[in-house]
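sanity check this record:
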Amino acid sequence: MSEQTHAIYRKIEHFLTENNLSPNPTNYSVAFAHLQKHSAKLSSAINSHLKKHGKLNETFTQQIFSEFIQQPDYNNETIYPALQTLLTEVYSVVEKSHLDNVSYIKTLNAASMKLDDSQQETNIQMLVGLLKKSTDSMRNSQEKLSQRLQKAEQESEQLQRQLHQVAKAAMFDDLTGLLNRAGLRTKLEEYANASGVPLEESLYSIIVFDLDKFKLINDTYGHPFGDRVLSNTGSVITKHIRGTDLAVRFGGEEFIVVLPDTDLQSAYQVAEKIRCAISNVCWINRRTNEKLSAITISAGIAQSQLNSDLTLDDVIQVADDALYRAKNNGRNCCYMLHHGQSSGGVHE
């Protein structure tokens, strides 16, 4: 174990002991985040609690864990691999220590047998017995510590998997499997880090989709059927876009597609393919086997402008205004708008 890791481990152990906290992964992660100053808000909350109450407790650390560490905005990609490394290294040292102890006991036993055979003085035999007893006690203690840390390591791995699931759930819409708004922000940050250029400084297009008369669909056939329509819409959109494009359920029956390195006309063609695919889906009433009327979608398309102050939200607003015009044109169609032609409106 490195000196740095050993120092961190000692600090965490001291922190947990001072506050009478059990050495479980939740308390380890809270202590680790606080002592390593990973989150100013987390440390502020802990310091305030210590100032008021003197010590932490299990309930408070669980609350801190849920509020600051289990949240998707917290960089669990930083804390949990580091915590995992810490526990792994500590466990490795404990195991080595245990093996050393076992070897020492074997040597001591052999020496004791020789002393017994040679009928050495009683006080020497008593000393050997005392040393053996002391060593056995130390070995048992090491074994318990090893088991405890091994269990903590397993719990840490389980928590890490759970955190990945939480992070995924925070980024994706359960019903459609598409990104949600928070997921879109995360993916845009990843795009900027990978390309070295923020999306807003490059050429891209936005498509805003909205299912036509979706409220009537829900009112007529029920929300479970409406959920099937939303899920299908997400599948169709995913099928017709590239791996570099971002599909988002923006809310309700509204979807957004971000297409990097795509001009307005190319984005229009993508929107048209998706619109046609959705309108061609054959829906059957399971109770009556009746073929339902086509469910349609409208789309508004807009494009960014290089060397301008347009933000992503600005381009989305232009695309939303284009969608309003598509709705006014009879629905089940796509409409393009350039910045400056936007007027705003309400659609359904």
